[in-house]
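Question: I have long wanted to understand how a fold can be written as tokens. Here is the record:
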Amino acid sequence: MDKYYSGVSQYTANLLSAIFSEDKQNNYKLFYNSYHNLTAKLSPWSNENSQLVAWRVPNKIFNYLLQKIFSYPKLDRVLGRVDLFWSPHFNFSSMSPSSPDFKKIITVHDLSFLRYPEFFSIRKNFWHRALNVKKTLRSVDMIVAVSENTKNDLLELVGIEPEKIKVIYPGNNIIKREIGLEERAAFFRKHHLEEFISEGAKSIPFILYLGNIEPRKNIAGLIAAYEKFRADDGKKENKFKNVKLLLAGGAGWKNRRIYSAWQKSPYKDDIKFLGYVSQTEKEILYGSAAIFAYPSYYEGFGFPPLEAITYGVPVVCSNVSSLPEVVGEAAITVNPFEIAEIADAFKIILSEEALRERLSSAGQERAKFFSWSKAAREYLELFKKINEKE
């Protein structure tokens, strides 16, 4: 098992660490269910004012059978007396109907499954329907949205009252570090990309995408934009003929069209799928890329562009959903439905050194805005406010 977290688990881990660093007064009970014994992995969150409470049941049985069908166990009874129940994501959470005296808060990362259900598999859409998300959101006392975009979706798609939503931006999951030549070389040798091993960090430039391989991320569109970028250049000076496209991330769902686009591409040999990469490998890629491309159709927040600008990588990302909130003026934003616009952004960045330097500097400055300690303080203020509210 990789020692790093990802997605909501990484969000929760980083936020809890920051909360426990800020708060030495309140007591916390951290409930988790896993068939595997995760005590060692979760030990950093067991301290003087926090206690791990575990159930050891396979998650599918716990969620679908026990929580969904039998409404067992009642989590408030498992935890004992609590003043406030916070859920960092949608899940089945059965509570006693006779225990309405504690407040409930849930964090919503995105509503892509309501906005674009066609991007999800039948299994994923079944899961979202089973969760009865709208009912859950209407039953809690407060909702934390990770972006203004997610707040707007809560207002539009679920009909939540604006005063019931608090926007708290996440922190930054990555800290820039220097990547050594040997570390870089070992990574590229592992992936049979020896052409990127040189003393010049970006001697052979590549465009990087990092995220799940799934339709919502518009990877087929990215491949089409790369093809246009290369084809247009071939008509002129052919100065970008060595630029590669690296796609890093685990296989998601409904990705047959993506791999088909790659197989049919005239530049197939210059497009590489790296599969899942660890946190350390992400850092090597960010520290080596010429451009980070993220033309996603929808993001509740969008951590990869934030991680990329932290490393000073010039970013091309979508001008929709939450992504403009994340990158500010530190990226070139494009219409994800316009292939030519994405391709032109690649050409402009690789052609203009002054632009690259400006984006790199602005990105590293913008990244400082997102802090887990800041997020923790805002959560603690919200916890206090909700707990005092009659």
Summary: The chain has two domains: 7-171+372-388, 181-367. The mean pLDDT is 89. The two ends are 45 Å apart (CA to CA).
